[in-house]
Specification:
The chain is about 35% helix and about 20% strand. It is an alpha+beta fold and about 450 residues long. The protein has a four-stranded antiparallel beta sheet with strand order 2-11-7-9. It has a four-stranded antiparallel beta sheet with strand order 15-23-20-22, covered by helices on one side. β17 and β18 form a beta hairpin. α5 packs antiparallel against α9.
């Protein structure tokens, strides 16, 4: 992307055109899931969805004394995720549109561009696959992937003249707005297919004779938490990741090699028909979701972030449990029972065992399973088409960014001030001027 730059461009580093602001550190007992006097909202990696920062949900609140003045988010800041167990999360970013009376957490960082650099220009650059791939490689670790400050600041940037930065941003946003509209149109079918499954399930339940019984009545053995172990350096036994729960099923390929040491991994090995339930999540609508281990699944253990339920299959079909568990009637119970600790919503074995299930006779369960499976196969086909569209959309976005930062998206203007002169002015201003202070937040 950075080879053969056009006339007037210059290759520089992020440290020459932006300042990095570290995230707020705090102790777990200091964090509250609710707003309160002298508390400041903190965003985390989960608040970045796509390239957008959602500052109105899934926040934690910490004492104002923990937040430095420069850590409050300002218009033009580029919010970065710098640490995660998932490499796909590390390096994702979003541009902050306006000053916000809140800050970012310790596993985040902010790039604050110099006043002579168009924030969206740098923001789009760090969203490019060129940068994301570079940062994934730099961050890759054994357990937690960390993107370090030197790796961010040393990243090379193809900088163009100020006027061209503005033209590039305007053209990118014009193209992206069309793709956004298309993405929104594709979101509607996805929502409707999910609603279709729920509607068919409710219709089937509406015609059946039901008995509300707690899950605990159907267990063949007590609910059991899994075991989390360190990642094996060489050979180990596979352990599921929390991302294994998908659409009511367990994807056993979503695993890592775990080092069980002297622990017998067979105690935590899942079997076909096991139902696994998430103990905690930063999002209320995801806490307590469950998935069924399918037939022919890989041999794998489960971590302590999941709870295993084994039911009497003669009375409660595991496939039926999978169908109803993530439905509205169960979600309402789980979300009302969930408790928060340091911004994480959690459920325990007692809450899960007390969940009331609408259970018809085994014959009716089998009928509902067959009916819903036909609908689900249709939904999966539709979802596959939507997924293929989103892959094409993402590819188009990256193609636009690649074209932009190689100088081929908009025409050059020979009257523009060269980027080399711009860099000289930035360097001079950094040695002669104090940093711009943000708005005060002590009122």
């Amino acid at each position: 992307m950075t080879g053969g730059l056009p006339s007037g461009w210059a290759l520089t580093r992020i440290e020459d055109v932006a300042h990095l602001v570290r995230g707020v550190t705090f102790k777990k007992p200091e964090a509250s899931p609710e707003a309160g006097p002298r508390l400041v909202p903190i965003v985390r990696a989960g608040n970045i969805d796509g390239a957008r920062a959602h500052l109105d949900r899934d926040l934690v609140y910490v004492p104002r004394e923990r937040v430095g003045e420069e850590q409050y988010l300002r218009s033009g800041d580029i919010l970065l995720a710098t640490s995660s167990g998932s490499l796909s999360v590390v390096g994702k970013s979003a541009l902050i549109a306006q000053d916000w009376h809140g800050a970012h957490g310790a596993f985040m960082a902010v790039l604050r561009p110099c006043s002579d650099v168009e924030p969206a220009f740098l923001g789009y650059f760090v969203q490019s696959e060129y940068v994301r791939r570079k940062w994934r490689h730099a961050a890759a670790g054994t357990n937690i992937n960390n993107l370090k400050k030197p790796d961010i600041l040393s990243t090379e940037v193809p900088l163009c003249p100020s006027g061209e930065q503005q033209r590039i941003v305007a053209t990118i946003e014009e193209h992206f707005s069309r793709l956004d509209a298309a993405d929104d149109s594709m979101a509607a079918p996805s929502l409707r297919t999910a609603q279709l499954l729920e509607s068919v399930l409710q219709a089937e339940l509406g015609t059946a004779k039901l008995h509300d019984q707690p899950l605990s009545d159907f267990l063949t053995e007590p609910l059991a938490n899994g075991r989390s172990v360190p990642t094996a350096e060489d050979y180990g036994f596979p352990v599921l990741r929390l991302t294994c729960l998908r659409d009511g099923w367990v994807d056993t390929s979503e695993s890592k090699q775990g080092n069980f040491g002297e622990i017998d991994h067979r105690r935590y090995q899942v079997e076909s028909g096991d139902f696994l339930i998430s103990r905690g999540n930063g999002s209320l609508h995801l806490v307590g979701i469950g998935g069924l281990v399918p037939h022919g699944a890989h041999s794998v253990a489960y971590p302590d972030t999941l709870i295993r339920a084994r039911v009497d299959r003669s009375r409660l079909r595991p496939e039926y449990l999978s169908l109803i568990w993530n439905s509205r009637v169960i979600r309402r119970q789980l979300e009302s029972q969930a408790r928060t600790t340091a911004g994480i919503y959690k459920v325990n074995q007692s809450m899960i065992g007390d969940v009331l299930l609408p259970v018809p006779s085994p014959d009716v369960q089998d009928r509902i399973i067959r009916r819903l499976e036909l609908v689900r196969q249709t939904v999966l086909q539709l979802d596959a088409e939507v997924d293929r569209y989103h892959l094409r959309s993402a590819s188009l976005r990256q193609s636009i960014l690649s074209t932009a930062f190689s100088g081929r998206l908009v025409p050059q203007n020979p009257d523009d001030e060269p980027a080399s002169v711009l860099l000289e002015r930035i360097a001079a201003s950094q040695t002669t001027k104090p940093r711009r202070r943000g708005p005060r937040h002590d009122q």
